[in-house]
Amino acid sequence: MNIARAGFYSGLATAARLLAALVVVKLVAWFAGPEGVGKLGQFMSLMSLLAVLAGGGISAGIVKYVAEYREDPQRLARLLAAALWYALCASLLMGCLALTFSRPLASWLLDDPAYAGLIRVLAVAQLGIALVNYILAVVNGFMDVRRLALIQVLGSMLSIVTVIALARWLHLYGALLALVVGQLLWLLVGLPAWWRSPYFRRSMLRLRFDREMTWRLAAFSVMTLTAALVSPLVNIAVRDHLALELGWQQVGYWQAVGKVSDAYLLFLTAAINIYYLPKLASIQGRDALLAELRHAYRYILPVVVVLAASVYLLREPLTRWLFSVDFAPANALYAPQLVGDVIKIAAFILSYVMLAKAMTRLFVISECLFAASYLALVYVFTARFGLVGAMYAFAANYLGYLAFNLLVVRRYLGGL
């Protein structure tokens, strides 16, 4: 499997996920306007956080070690038994915490305690979401990109139907509820597809504590949980700051541009995640690793530049079509955001070396450091430039992150 073929299949899956996400955003924009889109962002940040925590944050670890152990059935069986035990224990813990604090979470994130029932549904769904994460990680570790794409496409189609039905019935509340239900519906596709794969064994559904494998997975758990905690929490803090200083309508404009950015970058980040994590994890030699990174830049960076330029040229019709004419002020925010996107992908490719080689301490420090610097830059730049300052902060922060990753990779290659 090469990057072109992986990109094709991941592109199909990403298009389906993107369509599902755009349906949600469009419906929320219709029913609730810019303020509703701002609250949608808050709920999606909580969902992304809990979705990772539901499995203990070990999906990247499962992908890495399945890629390494797939020719060693005994070690693979130990790994997966420990991974499933770890994931289900973590999902039970997170579900209980979310149930306990559902009302404060609803008041804090959505500014309305009436949404506490929605948080409770999300809490109960944690077990199912953990199992979905586990299945996807195992399939990805075997680099079965076609099967992975099939699960994601069919799962996204089920999610779209659910969103349309619930949003028409319950409006904003229904759209948010559909985000949770749609994740659970992926099991209807994922379990049969995985069950019919040539590498599936019933032993992959056993639960067992294994000290060695749990310790290995825990390193990835720390890295993934750091990223999962820091990024949504910082985005929530940024939204709260922008809402306090500029109002929720301005947050809606910022969120709209961010959603467009996330949407087109999803094609690239999905391909990088599906292909490069297991690939880099299996490479040991300096020359092979350097060649793989050069290959990534040769193919991926020109694509992101073309996509960013296209989005900029089409920003007005895109904003009007994806949201509504009420979002026209968001058009002034695209240029610095898109520059930041290009820098982000350049840094993202290099940052996978830290994940693939389990550089736990360095990864955690970098995530915390650059999350804090982003928030600080938002405060400084928005005070000076207004809402567009948040986009300047995004680009400036990723420029620093790119420089940091260049130093890390150069040092790692020098030590091989």
Automatic annotation (TrEMBL):
Keywords, ordered alphabetically: Cell membrane, Membrane, Transmembrane, Transmembrane helix
Q: Which CDD domains match?
A: MATE_like_10
* Record-annotated membrane-spanning stretches: 12-32, 44-67, 79-102, 114-136, 148-167, 173-195, 215-236, 256-276, 296-314, 334-355, 362-381, 387-409
What does the record list as coiled-coil region(s)?
A: none
Task: Extract the Pfam families matched here.
Answer: Polysacc_synt_3 (PF13440)
Tell me which InterPro entries the record gives.
Poly_Biosynth_Transport (IPR050833), WzxE (IPR044550)
Biological process per Gene Ontology, one example term = enterobacterial common antigen biosynthetic process
| Domain of life, per lineage | Bacteria
Q: Does the keyword Amino-acid biosynthesis apply?
A: no
Chief localisation class:
membrane
Q: Does the keyword Transmembrane helix apply?
A: yes
Q: Name one GO cellular component term.
A: plasma membrane
Identify this protein by name: Lipopolysaccharide biosynthesis protein
State the organism of origin: Rhodanobacter thiooxydans
